[in-house]
Write a structure and sequence with these properties.
Oligomer: single chain
Strand order of the largest sheet: 1-2-3
Strand content: under 5%
Distance between the termini: 25 Å
Amino acid sequence: MKKSLTFLIYFLFATHAQAQMPYIEEMRALGAISGQGLACGSTKYDTFELLARAILLTKAPSDKLRTDAIYAYSEEKANAYISKEMDGFYECSSINRRFDNQEIFKAVLYGDGTIKMPDGQILTPRQPYDARMIYKENANSRKEAKAIYNGREAKIIKVDVKDDTLASMQYPKTRQPQINMPNTIGHISRSR
């Protein structure tokens, strides 16, 4: 079961079926991949996390769906991490090989949140954002995830997602406000 899930997730970016996948389901799949990469200590984890978050923000068709996707992404990331931890990090070396060879790493992320996907498709965000602000590398990611997901020594992380519907209504249609997205993707706290 776990092997088939891993292979299914691996081929997410290698197939054209990805374009047909609903937004929330695609974000769940990205979260599961991220959780496995984090758990197995992939060397390309930070790059994946940056690209996955950019895809989440750039592809969001609405503020409500973006909020739902952040939750779905974080939940799947936590579940995948905990699952990998519970199976004793089984087959992490092969997971890391597949993780590091994904098509997503051929994507190009521009400063305003525009993404050129490996298949040549250009994704433009509804509202430009500063792509440098969506993820900061952290050498302690795995340690912090373990603490949060297992409920030990967990710090409280505030996930602040603001609905900018009112802000966009306050400006004339010719001038759209530029929203700088803070690091809005947090971890789901788990307790035992």
